[in-house]
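Continuing the series of single-chain predictions for the mutant panel. This is the parent chain; the variants come on the following pages.
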Amino acid sequence: MAARKPRLYFSFRSPYSWLAVERLTRALGRPHEVLEFIPYWDPDARTEAALTARGGAFHYVQMSKPKHLYLLQDAKRLARRLDVPMRWPIDVDPWWELPHLGFLAAREHGAGEAFYREVIAARWQRGEDVCTPEVLTGVAERAGVDPAVVLGAVDDEAVRAAGVDCLMRAYEEDIFGIPYLRLGPHRFWGVDRVDDFLAAYAGTGAPIPVPEPVPAGVGYDTDTGGGCG
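Parent structure:
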C-alpha cells in the first residue's frame, strides 16, 4: 500500500498559510506534488448545516481585535523577511466558499496548483477581494480553467460535498488553526513549525526536490505560533 501523503490544511484567508506555503515551495520545489492540499475556511450556513448533519463542527474560534492588529504587523514582518511583496486585502462580507470550492473544482480540472498561485497573487500581492466573482473570473482565466467551472462550484452538489469532506477531515483531525501540517501522527501548526515538518519529512526518506535558491538572511519569527485561520 502506498504511503499516505503528508497533509497541509490551508486557507486563502490566512497570511500565515500563504507564507508557510512560500517557505515550503522554497524547500520542496512544488509542494502541491508532495503534499495533499486540503482547504479550510469559515463555512457558510449551507456548508455548516451539512457538516453538522455528519456529526462535525468547525473548531476555529474568531480572533479578537487586538489579535487581528498584531497579525497585521506580524504578517508584514514575515513577508519582508521572506522578501515577498504584500498588500493587505480588505475583506467586505467575504464568502469563503467561492475561492475554496473554486480551488476544489479547478483541481478536478487539473488546474489546482495554478489556481492556488493565482488566488495568492490576487489576494496577497495585489490586495484584491478573492471572494468576488469579478476577481475570481480573472484568477480562473490566468490559471487556465473555465471561469464558469470555478464560479459554479458553489452550486455544484458534488463540489459542495467535497468541501464538506475537507471540513469533516479537519474536524476529525482536530484542526483548529491554519496552516496545519500532518505527517502520520505528527502535527505542525503555524508558519514557525515548517522547519520542524521539513526535518520530520526528510526523516521518512522521501525524496525532496532540489529547491530554488533562498535569498540570504531569510528567517522567521519565533515569538508567535504563526497560525491563523
